[in-house]
Amino acid sequence: MTPLHVAATGALVLLGIGLYGLLALRNLIKVIIALQIMVKGVVLALVAAGSISGQINLGQSLAVTLIVADTIVAVVGLALAVQVRRRFGSLDVQELSTLRG
Amino acid sequence: MFNLVPLVIAFPVAGVLLNLAFGTRIREPITGIIASVISGLAFAVSVLLLLALISQPEGAIVSLGEWIQVGGLSISWSFRVDTLSVAMMLVVTGVGTLIHIYSIGYMHGDARFTRFFVYLNLFLAAMLLLVSADNFLLLFVGWEGVGLCSYLLIGFWFDKPGGEGWRNSSAARKAFLANRVGDAGLLLAMFAMFWVFGSLNFADVLGQAEETLAVGAPLATLISLLLLLGVTGKSAQIPLFVWLPDAMAGPTPASALIHAATMVTAGVYLIARTGVLFALSPVAQGMVVLVGTCTALLAASIAVGQNDIKRVLAYSTISQLGFMVAAVGMGAYTAGLFHLVTHAFFKALLFMAAGSVIHGVAHGFGHAGRGEAFDPQDMRVMGGLRSKMPVTFWTYIAGALALAGLPPLAGFFSKDEILLVAFEHYPLAYVALTAAAFLTAFYIARQMLMVFFGKGRTQAAAHAVESGRYMLIPLIILAGLSVIGGALNLPGVHTLGGWLEHTTHEAEAGAFNAGVAGVSTALALLGFGLAYMLYGRRPVGERDPLEGALFNALRNKWWVDELYDRIVVRPYNCLSRLAAGFDRTVIDGAGLRLARLMIWLGETARITQTGQLNWNVAGIVGGLLIVLIIVVLGRGA
Hints:
Low-confidence stretches of chain B: none
Shape of chain B: globular
Strand content of chain A: under 5%
Helix content of chain A: over 70%
Order of helices and strands of chain A: HHH
Radius of gyration of chain B: 30 Å
Strand content of chain B: under 5%
Largest interface: A-B, 13 and 8 residues
Largest sheet of chain B: 2 strands, antiparallel
Order of helices and strands of chain B: HHEEHHHHHHHHHHHHHHHHHHHHHHHH
CATH topology of chain A: Helix Hairpins
Strand order of the largest sheet of chain B: 1-2
CATH architecture of chain A: Orthogonal Bundle
Structural class of chain A: mainly alpha
Oligomer: heterodimer
Number of strands of chain B: 2
Number of helices of chain A: 3
Low-confidence stretches of chain A: none
Shape of chain A: elongated
Distance between the termini of chain A: 55 Å
Structural class of chain B: mainly alpha
Number of domains of chain B: 2
Number of helices of chain B: 26
Mean pLDDT of chain A: 88
C-alpha cells in the first residue's frame, strides 16, 4: 500500500463520513461540520492528485486556496446558524422546511 | 362659391359639438334653437350652392385633401357639387330645419331633450356627407352614419317602463341588423367596383363604366345587383323592408326626418347616382323595377289593415319608396327624384301632423284622467279631432290629398310622371303601381276618417287639444309646399328635369298623358268614396267594417315578420346556441383541460419538494451519481 493509496482511501473515507453526516444529521451545526469534513476530503484528494500527476506545486496551491475559501464558507454557515437559532429558536433543519416571505 | 360645400357638413358637426359641450349647462329650448339655427345655416349654404349652380350648371368637385393612400387605392375628402347633390341637400336641410323646429315643441319636457338634438344634427351631417361625397367610400361613411343615427333615434326611449323600452330597443336593433345586410351588399359592390375600375371615385367609375363594360356584362349585373341589395336595406324595399314599420318606436320627429323624408331616400339617390351602371345591365334594371313595384303594392295593401296611426304612415312610406325605386329602375331619374322631393314634403308633414295628433290625444287622456291602458297612437281611440285640432286637421288634409295624388297637389304630378313612364315601357308595372295608388287613396282616406271625422270615441279624443306654435308653424309651411310642390316639375315645363339633366343626362321628358292622369285621379276619388262608404257613415269600433280573412292577412302584415322569424331568426338563434355550446365544450374545454392537466402535474411534482435539507442533499448526491454513471458508461462505449 503506497502512500498514494492511503491518501486516496483517506479522501474517500472523509467524503463518505461527510456525506453521511449531511444526509443523516439534523442539527445545523453538525451539518456544517459534516460539510467541512467533506471539504477536507477534497483537499486531501487535491494534494494527492497533484502528487500523482507530477504537478505538486499546483496541487498544493489549489489546496491552500481551497482552505481559505472553505474557511469563509464555514464562517458564513456558522453566522447563518446563529441567525436561525435566533429566529426559530431551534437548530433542527427539519423544522426549517416552511417557506416564509 | 362651390368651395362652400364643406360648410354644409361642417355646420351640423359644429352643432353636435356645441350641444355636446354646453348642452348640459343651458336650458331646454336653447339647445333646440341652436340646433335649428345650425340646420338653417346649412340650408342657407345649400341655397348659395344652388345660386352658383344656376350660372354654372356643370358643378364642381371640391377636394379637402387626401384621406387614404394605399397602393392603388386613393381616397380623398372630396365633395361633389352638381345638380343632383344640391337638390338632395336642399331637401335634407330644408325639411330637416322644419323638423328641428317642430321637435322643439314635440320634445318639450323630455329628460333627454339636448341629446335628441345632438342626434338630429349628427344625422344631418351624415346625410349631407352621403349626398355630397365624391367617392363611394365617403358616401359609405355617410351611409353608415345615417344608419347609426337611425339606430340611436329608434331606440331613443329605451328606458320606458312596462316593457315598452325593451320593445323600442329591439326595434332599433332590428333596424340596424336589417341595414347591415344591405350595407354588406354595398360594401361588396364597392369591392367589385374597385376590382374592375381600380378606383372608387365617381368620376372614374361612372366615367369609365361604358367603355370598360359592355351592355349586359355579367360584372355590370353583379355590381348593380349588389348595389340594389344596399338600396333595399336603406330604402326599406322587399326583402329588407321589415325594419321600417318597427322604426316607428322612435320619437315622431325622428320618424319624419329619418324614416320618411330623408334617410330612406338614400337608396333612390344611390341608384340615380350610379344610373350608368344600372343602364348597362337590363337584368338589374328589371330587378329594380320588380322590387320597387312589388314593394309599392305589398306595402300599400298592408297599410290598409293597420290601426296604429304611425304604422299606416310607415307602410305608406315603404310603398311610396317603392314608387321611387321603380321609377329610377326604369331610368326615369327625374320622375323618381321629383317624387322623392314631393314625398319628403307631404310625408314629413303627415308624420309631424300625426305626432301632433298623438300629442293632443295623449294630453286629452291626461285631462280625462282615467288610469286604464291606453295607446295614444291607436286610431280606434280617436275620431272627431277635426274641430279639436283645426290646424293639424287642415294641414293633414293637404298632406293626405297630396299623397293620394289628387290634382293639383304635389303628389299628383310626381306620381303621375312615374305612372306615365311605367305606362309607356312596363305595362305590368303600370297596372301594379296604379293599383297601389288606388290603395294609397283608400288607406289615407280611412285614416283621415278614423282620426278626424265622426265623434270622439274616447274621453281622450274628446278632450284633445291643439299643439303649440313650434309644432304648427312647420306644419303650415310643409302644407304649403305639399300643395304647390308640383310646380317644381310641371308637365311641359320640366324645371326639375332640365335641372337634373346636367347630372343624370336623361333627355327624356314625358309628355303629359291625360288618360294616365285621368285614370289615377278617378281611382283616387274611387278610393276616397269607398273609404267614406265603409268608415265615414257610421262610427268605427273594435270591429273593422272590412273584417274578414283578407283583412286579417293585411292586419297581420301578410305574416312577413312571422315568416322571417321562421326562416331567418329561429335557425340563426339555433345556430348561435350550437356555436355557444361548441365554444363552451370544445374551445374553452380544451383550454380548461390543459390547465387542469398542468395543475395535476404541479400537484404531483410538489411531493418531491419537502423543504428538508437532508432530502435536498440526497437529491444532489443522487443526481451526481447519475451524471457519473452516464460519464463512465459513455467512456466505456
